[in-house]
Amino acid sequence: MISIFSSNLNDVPEFLQNDPEFILVNSVEELYLYSYEGRLALMTPTIKEENLRPFFIDFIAPLKYHQKQNYSLKKEPLAKALGGKFQDRPLVWDITCGTGSDSLLLLSFGAKVVAFERNKIMWALLQDALERAQKDQELGHLFKERFTLIRGDPRDHVFDQRPLAVYYDPMYPEGNRKALPRKEMRIIREVVGDDPDFKETVTWAQGIPRSRFIIKRPIKAPDLDEKPGHIYQGKSTRYDVYFR
């Protein structure tokens, strides 16, 4: 059960009010969701101990930022990994949505995005962000027309339409890093953890016919068991592309 700290049910987003996996509590716990200035926010031990600002997800500001960048789709590594052609609104599955940052980048390129999130807490934060974004006067139509959020594991779903690409940004083990990862990633790792079924997910994604599989990797990471068909590098990450 996921705790929502609130004394008033009306402060809880409507989509959670009757969800049996979320429970309303009136006492502070170690990890919980709560209402903050009209948004669903998250409290974790890291946020509390380091007195960090409330953690919530916003879709509008990041999308506006991407739109102002006027990206060249012939130069952006992720756009190139997708083939660089977005006039026909290609369908892309983002199978680990996380905070939605990569999904929003894909949306800004012109893709139609189906985003999956199986962690219940992250899904709730994403759903709250999506509902707020859909009400935005300027950009709300993009989220209604080209962005779908699905709760759960993509391997459990059956779809009639195959995507142009399946995009996977796994949560890698921390390893022995000297420097701490950025605060947002530390909070997400606290909630989500690593991807213990990494190999199974890769095998499933690589097996989808007539779709390209794109996996985001640290730039110096070794290849998977199979050598990628193409590699597109950014400053600190790369996108390995596999074709079926």
Helix-strand layout with pairing:
Blueprint: E1 2-5, H1 14-17, E2 22-25, E3 32-36, E4 39-43, H2 45-49, H3 60-69, H4 77-81, E5 91-94, H5 101-109, E6 112-117, H6 120-134, H7 140-146, E7 147-151, E8 165-168, H8 183-192, H9 198-206, E9 212-218, E10 230-233, E11 237-243
Parallel strand pairs: 1-2, 1-3, 5-6, 5-8, 6-7, 8-9
Antiparallel strand pairs: 3-4, 9-11, 10-11
How are helices and strands ordered from N to C?
Answer: EHEEEHHHEHEHHEEHHEEE
| Biggest pleated sheet | 7 strands, mixed
Number of strands: 11
Q: Work out the helix count.
A: 9
Total domains = 2
What is the molecular shape?
A: globular
CATH topology of the largest domain: Rossmann fold
Strand content: 15-25%
Please give a structural write-up.
The chain is of the alpha/beta class and 244 residues long. The chain folds into 2 domains: 2-49; 60-243, Rossmann fold (3-Layer(aba) Sandwich). The chain has 9 helices and 11 strands. The strands form 2 sheets. Strands 7-6-5-8-9-11-10 form a 7-stranded mixed β-sheet, sandwiched between helices. Strands 2-1-3-4 form a 4-stranded mixed β-sheet. α3 packs across α5 (101-109). The longest helix has 15 residues, at 120-134. It starts with a strand and ends with a strand.
